[in-house]
Amino acid sequence: CRLLCGGALLAKHLPRRRAMEAFLSPKDSAKFIAENSQDVLVEEQGVRKVAEALFDKVSAKEFSLAGWKSLHELNPQAVSDDAVNWVFLADTLNFSFWSEHEDRKCLVKYRGKMYSGYWSLCAAINRALDAGIPITSAAYYATMTLEQVRHVFRSDTDVPMPLIEERHRILNETGTILLEKFGGSFVTCVKMSEKSALKLLRIVVENFPSYRDEATFKGTMVSFYKRAQILVADTWSALEGKGDGCFGDISSLTIFADYRIPQVLVHLGAMRYSDELMRKLHEGVMFQSGDKQEVEIRGCSIWCCGLICDHLLELYKKKGQNMSERINAVLLDYYLWDYARDHREDMKDIPIHRVRCIYY
Ligand SMILES: Nc1nc2c(c(CN[C@H]3C=C[C@H](O)[C@@H]3O)cn2[C@@H]2O[C@H](COP(=O)(O)O)[C@@H](O)[C@H]2O)c(=O)[nH]1
After folding, report:
1. What family classification does the UniProt entry report for this protein (predicted)?
2. Fewer CB under 10 Å: which end of the chain, C or N?
3. ipTM higher than threshold 0.90
Protein backbone atom coordinates (compact mmCIF):
# COMPACT_ATOMS: atom_id res chain seq x y z
CA CYS A 1 0.00 0.00 0.00
CA ARG A 2 2.88 2.36 0.87
CA LEU A 3 4.32 1.80 -2.63
CA LEU A 4 0.93 2.50 -4.22
CA CYS A 5 0.34 5.53 -2.00
CA GLY A 6 3.87 6.57 -2.80
CA GLY A 7 2.89 6.13 -6.45
CA ALA A 8 -0.05 8.47 -5.97
CA LEU A 9 2.18 11.05 -4.31
CA LEU A 10 4.78 10.61 -7.05
CA ALA A 11 2.20 11.20 -9.78
CA LYS A 12 1.38 14.57 -8.23
CA HIS A 13 4.95 15.68 -8.93
CA LEU A 14 5.46 14.02 -12.32
CA PRO A 15 4.87 16.18 -15.42
CA ARG A 16 1.27 15.46 -16.47
CA ARG A 17 2.37 13.48 -19.53
CA ARG A 18 3.93 10.67 -17.44
CA ALA A 19 1.37 11.08 -14.63
CA MET A 20 -1.39 9.90 -16.98
CA GLU A 21 0.49 6.65 -17.44
CA ALA A 22 0.44 6.27 -13.64
CA PHE A 23 -3.37 5.93 -13.84
CA LEU A 24 -5.05 2.73 -14.99
CA SER A 25 -6.91 3.15 -18.32
CA PRO A 26 -10.72 3.53 -18.00
CA LYS A 27 -11.16 -0.09 -19.15
CA ASP A 28 -8.63 -1.48 -16.62
CA SER A 29 -10.00 0.88 -13.96
CA ALA A 30 -13.50 -0.48 -14.55
CA LYS A 31 -12.30 -4.09 -14.18
CA PHE A 32 -10.44 -3.31 -10.95
CA ILE A 33 -13.39 -1.37 -9.49
CA ALA A 34 -15.99 -4.00 -10.45
CA GLU A 35 -13.86 -6.76 -8.84
CA ASN A 36 -13.62 -4.81 -5.59
CA SER A 37 -16.97 -3.07 -5.49
CA GLN A 38 -19.14 -3.50 -2.39
CA ASP A 39 -22.24 -1.35 -2.99
CA VAL A 40 -22.66 -1.77 -6.75
CA LEU A 41 -22.98 -5.15 -8.45
CA VAL A 42 -22.95 -6.13 -12.10
CA GLU A 43 -25.67 -8.75 -12.69
CA GLU A 44 -24.43 -11.33 -15.24
CA GLN A 45 -27.98 -12.58 -15.87
CA GLY A 46 -29.18 -9.01 -16.35
CA VAL A 47 -26.31 -8.29 -18.75
CA ARG A 48 -27.35 -11.32 -20.83
CA LYS A 49 -30.98 -10.19 -20.83
CA VAL A 50 -30.08 -6.65 -21.99
CA ALA A 51 -27.80 -7.96 -24.75
CA GLU A 52 -30.58 -10.26 -26.00
CA ALA A 53 -33.09 -7.39 -25.90
CA LEU A 54 -30.71 -5.21 -27.94
CA PHE A 55 -29.99 -7.93 -30.51
CA ASP A 56 -32.55 -6.68 -33.03
CA LYS A 57 -31.86 -3.01 -32.23
CA VAL A 58 -28.27 -3.06 -33.53
CA SER A 59 -29.36 -2.42 -37.11
CA ALA A 60 -31.73 0.43 -36.08
CA LYS A 61 -30.74 4.07 -36.61
CA GLU A 62 -30.74 4.58 -32.81
CA PHE A 63 -27.71 2.28 -32.70
CA SER A 64 -25.89 3.79 -35.66
CA LEU A 65 -23.20 6.41 -36.15
CA ALA A 66 -25.62 8.30 -38.43
CA GLY A 67 -28.08 8.63 -35.55
CA TRP A 68 -25.88 11.26 -33.91
CA LYS A 69 -27.00 13.72 -36.60
CA SER A 70 -30.30 12.30 -37.85
CA LEU A 71 -31.82 11.94 -34.36
CA HIS A 72 -30.52 15.18 -32.83
CA GLU A 73 -31.35 18.44 -34.63
CA LEU A 74 -29.11 20.52 -32.34
CA ASN A 75 -25.96 18.62 -33.30
CA PRO A 76 -23.97 20.13 -36.22
CA GLN A 77 -25.04 18.44 -39.48
CA ALA A 78 -22.06 19.40 -41.68
CA VAL A 79 -18.70 17.63 -41.87
CA SER A 80 -16.49 20.68 -41.24
CA ASP A 81 -13.88 22.34 -39.04
CA ASP A 82 -16.69 24.43 -37.51
CA ALA A 83 -18.52 21.23 -36.54
CA VAL A 84 -15.38 19.86 -34.85
CA ASN A 85 -14.91 23.09 -32.89
CA TRP A 86 -18.60 23.08 -31.96
CA VAL A 87 -18.14 19.58 -30.52
CA PHE A 88 -15.02 20.66 -28.64
CA LEU A 89 -16.86 23.56 -27.01
CA ALA A 90 -19.95 21.45 -26.18
CA ASP A 91 -17.93 18.64 -24.58
CA THR A 92 -15.69 21.09 -22.69
CA LEU A 93 -18.90 22.21 -20.94
CA ASN A 94 -20.68 18.82 -20.99
CA PHE A 95 -21.22 18.37 -17.25
CA SER A 96 -23.64 18.68 -14.35
CA PHE A 97 -27.06 19.61 -15.75
CA TRP A 98 -29.19 17.86 -13.16
CA SER A 99 -31.49 20.04 -11.03
CA GLU A 100 -32.40 19.76 -7.32
CA HIS A 101 -36.12 19.66 -8.18
CA GLU A 102 -37.49 18.09 -11.37
CA ASP A 103 -40.07 20.88 -11.67
CA ARG A 104 -37.54 23.73 -11.30
CA LYS A 105 -34.76 23.50 -13.83
CA CYS A 106 -32.74 25.43 -16.37
CA LEU A 107 -34.50 25.45 -19.76
CA VAL A 108 -33.32 27.11 -22.97
CA LYS A 109 -35.73 28.01 -25.75
CA TYR A 110 -34.35 27.68 -29.27
CA ARG A 111 -36.34 28.07 -32.50
CA GLY A 112 -39.59 27.74 -30.58
CA LYS A 113 -38.68 24.58 -28.67
CA MET A 114 -37.67 24.25 -24.98
CA TYR A 115 -34.57 22.17 -24.17
CA SER A 116 -33.41 20.82 -20.79
CA GLY A 117 -30.28 19.14 -19.42
CA TYR A 118 -27.44 18.56 -21.85
CA TRP A 119 -29.61 19.79 -24.70
CA SER A 120 -30.05 23.16 -22.96
CA LEU A 121 -26.29 23.63 -23.38
CA CYS A 122 -26.47 22.84 -27.10
CA ALA A 123 -29.50 25.10 -27.54
CA ALA A 124 -27.62 27.98 -25.84
CA ILE A 125 -24.58 27.44 -28.11
CA ASN A 126 -26.76 27.53 -31.26
CA ARG A 127 -28.76 30.52 -29.92
CA ALA A 128 -25.47 32.44 -29.48
CA LEU A 129 -24.22 31.49 -32.97
CA ASP A 130 -27.54 32.66 -34.49
CA ALA A 131 -27.06 35.97 -32.63
CA GLY A 132 -23.62 36.40 -34.24
CA ILE A 133 -21.65 35.55 -31.07
CA PRO A 134 -18.58 33.46 -32.13
CA ILE A 135 -18.98 31.19 -29.08
CA THR A 136 -17.18 28.23 -30.73
CA SER A 137 -14.08 30.32 -31.45
CA ALA A 138 -11.25 29.87 -28.92
CA ALA A 139 -10.15 33.45 -29.60
CA TYR A 140 -13.55 34.50 -28.21
CA TYR A 141 -14.10 32.17 -25.25
CA ALA A 142 -10.48 32.41 -24.04
CA THR A 143 -11.23 35.95 -22.85
CA MET A 144 -14.99 35.88 -22.19
CA THR A 145 -16.04 37.65 -19.00
CA LEU A 146 -18.29 35.97 -16.42
CA GLU A 147 -21.09 38.33 -17.46
CA GLN A 148 -20.75 37.29 -21.11
CA VAL A 149 -20.84 33.61 -20.09
CA ARG A 150 -23.94 34.22 -17.96
CA HIS A 151 -25.58 35.90 -20.97
CA VAL A 152 -24.71 33.21 -23.55
CA PHE A 153 -25.80 30.35 -21.24
CA ARG A 154 -28.78 32.16 -19.73
CA SER A 155 -31.84 30.09 -18.83
CA ASP A 156 -35.36 30.87 -19.97
CA THR A 157 -36.57 30.01 -16.45
CA ASP A 158 -35.44 31.53 -13.15
CA VAL A 159 -33.13 28.52 -12.63
CA PRO A 160 -29.64 29.21 -14.04
CA MET A 161 -27.40 26.57 -15.63
CA PRO A 162 -25.47 24.91 -12.76
CA LEU A 163 -21.76 25.72 -12.08
CA ILE A 164 -21.72 28.80 -14.32
CA GLU A 165 -18.56 30.18 -12.59
CA GLU A 166 -16.71 26.90 -13.23
CA ARG A 167 -17.89 26.99 -16.84
CA HIS A 168 -16.41 30.50 -17.16
CA ARG A 169 -13.07 29.42 -15.65
CA ILE A 170 -12.88 26.33 -17.88
CA LEU A 171 -13.75 28.32 -21.02
CA ASN A 172 -10.94 30.81 -20.37
CA GLU A 173 -8.44 28.06 -19.46
CA THR A 174 -9.32 25.77 -22.38
CA GLY A 175 -9.52 28.57 -24.96
CA THR A 176 -6.11 29.91 -23.91
CA ILE A 177 -4.49 26.46 -24.23
CA LEU A 178 -6.13 25.80 -27.62
CA LEU A 179 -4.81 29.16 -28.87
CA GLU A 180 -1.31 28.78 -27.44
CA LYS A 181 -0.67 25.13 -28.32
CA PHE A 182 -2.99 24.21 -31.19
CA GLY A 183 -3.49 27.31 -33.32
CA GLY A 184 -6.96 27.89 -31.83
CA SER A 185 -8.64 24.87 -33.46
CA PHE A 186 -9.39 21.38 -32.14
CA VAL A 187 -8.91 20.18 -35.73
CA THR A 188 -5.15 20.49 -35.04
CA CYS A 189 -5.48 17.95 -32.19
CA VAL A 190 -7.54 15.63 -34.40
CA LYS A 191 -4.89 15.71 -37.15
CA MET A 192 -2.12 15.10 -34.55
CA SER A 193 -3.97 11.95 -33.45
CA GLU A 194 -3.29 10.34 -36.86
CA LYS A 195 -6.70 8.61 -36.90
CA SER A 196 -6.26 7.02 -33.46
CA ALA A 197 -9.00 7.51 -30.87
CA LEU A 198 -6.63 6.60 -28.03
CA LYS A 199 -3.99 9.05 -29.24
CA LEU A 200 -6.60 11.83 -29.39
CA LEU A 201 -7.78 10.87 -25.88
CA ARG A 202 -4.19 11.18 -24.63
CA ILE A 203 -3.67 14.57 -26.34
CA VAL A 204 -6.86 15.89 -24.70
CA VAL A 205 -6.12 14.60 -21.17
CA GLU A 206 -2.47 15.69 -21.25
CA ASN A 207 -3.15 19.22 -22.47
CA PHE A 208 -6.54 20.24 -21.04
CA PRO A 209 -6.68 19.95 -17.20
CA SER A 210 -10.49 20.08 -16.91
CA TYR A 211 -10.67 16.73 -18.76
CA ARG A 212 -8.55 14.88 -16.15
CA ASP A 213 -11.38 12.79 -14.72
CA GLU A 214 -9.34 10.62 -12.30
CA ALA A 215 -9.70 9.18 -8.77
CA THR A 216 -8.02 6.91 -6.23
CA PHE A 217 -9.82 3.68 -5.32
CA LYS A 218 -8.38 1.31 -2.66
CA GLY A 219 -5.01 3.07 -3.09
CA THR A 220 -4.99 2.56 -6.89
CA MET A 221 -5.09 5.47 -9.36
CA VAL A 222 -8.09 4.99 -11.63
CA SER A 223 -9.49 7.00 -14.55
CA PHE A 224 -12.85 7.48 -16.28
CA TYR A 225 -12.04 10.31 -18.72
CA LYS A 226 -15.75 10.68 -19.40
CA ARG A 227 -15.64 14.07 -21.20
CA ALA A 228 -12.41 13.23 -23.02
CA GLN A 229 -13.88 9.97 -24.33
CA ILE A 230 -17.21 11.52 -25.34
CA LEU A 231 -15.26 14.31 -27.08
CA VAL A 232 -13.43 11.71 -29.17
CA ALA A 233 -16.71 9.89 -29.86
CA ASP A 234 -18.59 13.08 -30.80
CA THR A 235 -15.69 14.10 -33.07
CA TRP A 236 -15.92 10.67 -34.75
CA SER A 237 -19.67 11.20 -35.16
CA ALA A 238 -19.40 14.77 -36.47
CA LEU A 239 -16.83 13.61 -39.06
CA GLU A 240 -19.07 10.59 -39.83
CA GLY A 241 -16.13 8.24 -39.20
CA LYS A 242 -14.42 9.54 -42.35
CA GLY A 243 -11.21 11.45 -43.20
CA ASP A 244 -9.37 12.64 -40.07
CA GLY A 245 -12.19 11.09 -38.03
CA CYS A 246 -11.67 7.58 -39.37
CA PHE A 247 -10.50 6.19 -36.01
CA GLY A 248 -9.36 2.57 -36.52
CA ASP A 249 -9.38 1.98 -32.75
CA ILE A 250 -12.76 3.57 -31.85
CA SER A 251 -13.71 0.26 -30.19
CA SER A 252 -11.01 0.91 -27.58
CA LEU A 253 -13.16 3.60 -25.96
CA THR A 254 -15.47 2.72 -23.07
CA ILE A 255 -18.94 4.11 -22.40
CA PHE A 256 -19.00 7.58 -20.81
CA ALA A 257 -19.56 7.33 -17.05
CA ASP A 258 -22.13 10.06 -16.47
CA TYR A 259 -25.19 10.04 -14.16
CA ARG A 260 -27.74 8.71 -16.70
CA ILE A 261 -26.09 5.44 -17.82
CA PRO A 262 -25.94 3.96 -14.26
CA GLN A 263 -29.61 4.81 -13.81
CA VAL A 264 -30.67 3.01 -16.99
CA LEU A 265 -28.44 -0.04 -16.26
CA VAL A 266 -30.10 -0.48 -12.85
CA HIS A 267 -33.52 0.09 -14.43
CA LEU A 268 -32.81 -2.65 -17.00
CA GLY A 269 -31.51 -5.05 -14.31
CA ALA A 270 -27.91 -5.21 -15.54
CA MET A 271 -26.60 -3.56 -12.41
CA ARG A 272 -27.77 -3.47 -8.78
CA TYR A 273 -27.18 -1.10 -5.82
CA SER A 274 -26.92 -2.28 -2.21
CA ASP A 275 -29.86 -1.36 0.05
CA GLU A 276 -27.65 1.13 1.87
CA LEU A 277 -26.63 2.90 -1.34
CA MET A 278 -30.18 2.89 -2.73
CA ARG A 279 -31.38 4.49 0.51
CA LYS A 280 -28.77 7.26 0.18
CA LEU A 281 -29.77 7.87 -3.45
CA HIS A 282 -33.46 8.10 -2.53
CA GLU A 283 -32.59 10.61 0.20
CA GLY A 284 -30.82 12.73 -2.43
CA VAL A 285 -27.49 12.52 -0.59
CA MET A 286 -24.82 14.63 -2.32
CA PHE A 287 -21.68 12.68 -3.20
CA GLN A 288 -18.22 14.14 -3.76
CA SER A 289 -16.35 13.32 -6.96
CA GLY A 290 -14.01 10.46 -5.97
CA ASP A 291 -16.13 9.07 -3.11
CA LYS A 292 -15.89 5.25 -2.84
CA GLN A 293 -19.53 4.62 -3.76
CA GLU A 294 -19.45 7.22 -6.57
CA VAL A 295 -16.36 5.52 -8.03
CA GLU A 296 -18.08 2.13 -7.73
CA ILE A 297 -21.16 3.41 -9.60
CA ARG A 298 -19.04 4.81 -12.43
CA GLY A 299 -16.57 1.93 -12.68
CA CYS A 300 -19.24 -0.78 -12.57
CA SER A 301 -21.24 1.07 -15.28
CA ILE A 302 -18.25 0.98 -17.60
CA TRP A 303 -17.55 -2.69 -16.83
CA CYS A 304 -21.23 -3.64 -17.20
CA CYS A 305 -21.50 -2.03 -20.66
CA GLY A 306 -18.28 -3.72 -21.76
CA LEU A 307 -19.86 -7.07 -20.88
CA ILE A 308 -23.07 -6.16 -22.75
CA CYS A 309 -20.99 -5.36 -25.87
CA ASP A 310 -19.04 -8.63 -25.55
CA HIS A 311 -22.25 -10.61 -25.18
CA LEU A 312 -23.89 -8.87 -28.14
CA LEU A 313 -20.87 -9.66 -30.34
CA GLU A 314 -20.99 -13.28 -29.11
CA LEU A 315 -24.69 -13.62 -30.00
CA TYR A 316 -23.97 -12.45 -33.57
CA LYS A 317 -20.85 -14.63 -33.81
CA LYS A 318 -23.01 -17.67 -33.01
CA LYS A 319 -25.01 -16.68 -36.11
CA GLY A 320 -21.81 -16.45 -38.13
CA GLN A 321 -21.82 -12.66 -38.21
CA ASN A 322 -18.84 -10.46 -37.26
CA MET A 323 -20.44 -7.20 -36.04
CA SER A 324 -17.30 -5.53 -34.66
CA GLU A 325 -17.86 -2.60 -37.05
CA ARG A 326 -21.44 -2.07 -35.81
CA ILE A 327 -21.17 -2.83 -32.10
CA ASN A 328 -18.87 -0.85 -29.78
CA ALA A 329 -19.15 0.95 -26.44
CA VAL A 330 -19.70 4.33 -28.13
CA LEU A 331 -22.77 3.22 -30.07
CA LEU A 332 -24.10 1.25 -27.08
CA ASP A 333 -23.66 4.35 -24.92
CA TYR A 334 -25.45 6.65 -27.37
CA TYR A 335 -28.31 4.13 -27.60
CA LEU A 336 -28.66 3.74 -23.80
CA TRP A 337 -28.34 7.48 -23.18
CA ASP A 338 -31.05 8.30 -25.70
CA TYR A 339 -33.17 5.45 -24.27
CA ALA A 340 -32.76 6.94 -20.77
CA ARG A 341 -33.88 10.33 -22.08
CA ASP A 342 -36.97 8.83 -23.70
CA HIS A 343 -37.90 6.69 -20.66
CA ARG A 344 -37.46 9.28 -17.90
CA GLU A 345 -40.91 8.49 -16.48
CA ASP A 346 -40.33 4.70 -16.32
CA MET A 347 -37.04 5.26 -14.50
CA LYS A 348 -38.24 7.67 -11.82
CA ASP A 349 -37.93 4.95 -9.12
CA ILE A 350 -34.19 4.77 -9.78
CA PRO A 351 -32.63 8.05 -8.53
CA ILE A 352 -29.48 9.42 -10.17
CA HIS A 353 -26.44 9.84 -7.94
CA ARG A 354 -25.95 13.54 -7.19
CA VAL A 355 -22.50 15.06 -7.64
CA ARG A 356 -21.70 18.65 -8.57
CA CYS A 357 -18.46 18.42 -10.54
CA ILE A 358 -16.90 19.42 -13.83
CA TYR A 359 -16.24 15.85 -15.00
CA TYR A 360 -19.72 14.63 -16.00
N1 LIG B 1 -23.00 8.61 -21.28
C2 LIG B 1 -23.39 9.71 -21.91
N3 LIG B 1 -23.55 10.85 -21.19
C4 LIG B 1 -23.96 11.94 -21.87
C5 LIG B 1 -24.22 11.95 -23.25
C6 LIG B 1 -24.62 13.27 -23.58
C7 LIG B 1 -25.03 13.76 -24.95
N8 LIG B 1 -24.07 13.28 -25.91
C9 LIG B 1 -24.17 13.50 -27.30
C10 LIG B 1 -23.78 12.24 -28.00
C11 LIG B 1 -24.81 11.59 -28.49
C12 LIG B 1 -25.99 12.40 -28.41
O13 LIG B 1 -26.42 12.54 -29.74
C14 LIG B 1 -25.51 13.74 -27.87
O15 LIG B 1 -25.29 14.59 -28.96
C16 LIG B 1 -24.59 14.01 -22.39
N17 LIG B 1 -24.20 13.17 -21.40
C18 LIG B 1 -24.15 13.40 -19.97
O19 LIG B 1 -25.47 13.16 -19.49
C20 LIG B 1 -25.75 14.04 -18.39
C21 LIG B 1 -26.86 14.98 -18.82
O22 LIG B 1 -28.05 14.22 -18.82
P23 LIG B 1 -29.46 15.05 -18.79
O24 LIG B 1 -29.43 15.83 -17.47
O25 LIG B 1 -30.50 13.97 -18.90
O26 LIG B 1 -29.42 15.99 -20.00
C27 LIG B 1 -24.46 14.80 -18.12
O28 LIG B 1 -23.65 14.06 -17.22
C29 LIG B 1 -23.81 14.80 -19.51
O30 LIG B 1 -22.39 14.94 -19.43
C31 LIG B 1 -24.03 10.75 -23.99
O32 LIG B 1 -24.22 10.64 -25.22
N33 LIG B 1 -23.62 9.66 -23.26
Report:
1. Belongs to the QNG1 protein family.
2. N
3. yes
